[in-house]
Amino acid sequence: MAHQHFDRIFPYETLKSLPVQFLKPQSKSIGQKLSQTQKVNLLNIEIDNVFKTEVLENLQSGIVFTPNVDHLMKLQGDREFLQAYKMADYKLCDSQILMYASRFLGQPIKEKISGSDFFPAFYNFHKKNENIKVFLLGAAKGVAIKAQEKINAKVQRDIIVGSYSPPFGFETNEAECQKIIEMINRSDATVLAVGLGAPKQEKWIYQYREQLPNIRIFLAIGATLDFEAGNLQRAPKYISDLGLEWLYRMVSEPKRLWKRYLIEGLPFFWLILQQKLNIYKMTNHEVQSYE
């Protein structure tokens, strides 16, 4: 199991000896005292500085993205991804590393709200709300339907009204995309949860949202469908709280994730230092997108 493999490499006794006061999450009261702003700017992305409960209580409609280090690095060079991000109504911090960065910049984010935490909180919050009907889109063949069955069993009603795991590369096939749109519209869903990975899921929502008139809430949830189906195991909470969930996932899926975390993500720390020193500059595509 991934958990046992991780523990052999990074023993719990060693991890828990790290500086606790710096690593532990902000309590709600501390977060309220330290940050009065509702937005925190990280590399030109305005992240909502909110608690999960606030979002659950106030989310009636809109698009929800969950930025992490990988997202912020991809946004540096992908104009279409940035345009998708600009139209999102909620951008929730999905990274303990981003929380550390926000503290370093003097604007601490109140709470880490990963897609894999927010989505189960969302369907449990609305388990008796018959107006919330969810369609699941994403993951490998058979995963979405498995997640649908498990979630409906948990909440004891058919809150998930449809699901589909599209073939690889479907986003370049307009006929396939139109078939998916028809499936979603026929399902009577009011919420679309898309688990395709970034930036594919955000771009797909951006491109097709206007063809889905019944969908009031769009959620980009990454690997959450695999977690809900039981195909992947979440990192233990203490690992996540230490900001090491990325390392846990890399140990679990080294071939797929080593490059993302060990190469593509490293410049993030230099860019945050530039922002701290007020020398961070937008890339050309960012300047054009904000004009």
TrEMBL record:
Pfam families the UniProt entry points to: Glyco_tran_WecG
Superkingdom as given in the UniProt entry: Bacteria
UniProt GO molecular function: hexosyltransferase activity
Family annotation (InterPro entries): WecG_TagA_CpsF (IPR004629)
Keywords: Glycosyltransferase, Transferase
Annotated CDD domains: Glyco_transf_WecG_TagA
PANTHER family according to UniProt: PTHR34136, UDP-N-ACETYL-D-MANNOSAMINURONIC ACID TRANSFERASE
Protein name from the UniProt record: Glycosyl transferase
Record organism: Nostoc minutum NIES-26
